[in-house]
Amino acid sequence: MTSADNTVTVDIQDGIAVITIDRPEVRNAINASVLGQISQALEELADNDDAQIVIFTGAGDKAFVAGADINELAVRKPKDGLRAAMQGVYEKVEQFHKPTIAAVNGYAFGGGHELALACDIRIASTNAQFALPETSLGIMPAAGGTQRLARLVGVGRATEMILTSRRVKAHEALTMGLVTDVVEPQELMPKAKETAQTILSKGPLATQLAKTVVRHGFDADHSTGILLERLAQSVLYSSAEKVEGTNAFLEKRNPDYRAAQRKDDEA
């Protein structure tokens, strides 16, 4: 799957869809066209059973996504802020029902950092750097950065990063919990795919519901989060996936979740 202007590509292999922002000449900066292509890719992947997990990355070895296209940013008006196109697309990424991984190679600045924050898991190469430099341009992070970063690393760290536009290198990002792994650049995609394959070996409905409960439960009060957990578990208890998973464990064999999915679809 490739866009008409070749700035976003989607490659699907072994249950994994890799979405690549491919504008290395501008360090994969995101413009309106790229946002539209990401949104379209997610819509197409949502019902594609060949893609059970999505990895986002950037082309080349310099940048994941170096931010928004400044040429577009320079002419934006108040109505564009209210329309919040990038924020809307990243909401789609965060709420996507299949697990998502950001494989961060190089710079993840501004909108690139916010794209990584919208993913479920972030893995960085040793040359990765994270920053929200919007205040240097007289604006602020507004594609989820003020909210997701604070929830991930704490209000104090997030505020300091946003107000100072400070760059955070990979190992500091690991220490503060911004990423879960740091690997050498040549190991980044193998590590991301290894993580994806580990998730793929689990029950697909279980992983999707677990993701949903963690995401929505975090922003709810404790009682509501616990209720979401209980309801999701009751759904899983009624699934062919649970029967297959427990039987496979007792029979000391690998579970066939594909077959279980077909049973659930036919029920």
TrEMBL record:
<protein>
    <submittedName>
        <fullName>Enoyl-CoA hydratase-related protein</fullName>
    </submittedName>
</protein>
<dbReference type="Pfam" id="PF00378">
    <property type="entry name" value="ECH_1"/>
</dbReference>
<dbReference type="InterPro" id="IPR029045">
    <property type="entry name" value="ClpP/crotonase-like_dom_sf"/>
</dbReference>
<dbReference type="InterPro" id="IPR014748">
    <property type="entry name" value="Enoyl-CoA_hydra_C"/>
</dbReference>
<keyword id="KW-0456">Lyase</keyword>
<dbReference type="InterPro" id="IPR018376">
    <property type="entry name" value="Enoyl-CoA_hyd/isom_CS"/>
</dbReference>
<comment type="similarity">
    <text>Belongs to the enoyl-CoA hydratase/isomerase family.</text>
</comment>
<dbReference type="InterPro" id="IPR001753">
    <property type="entry name" value="Enoyl-CoA_hydra/iso"/>
</dbReference>
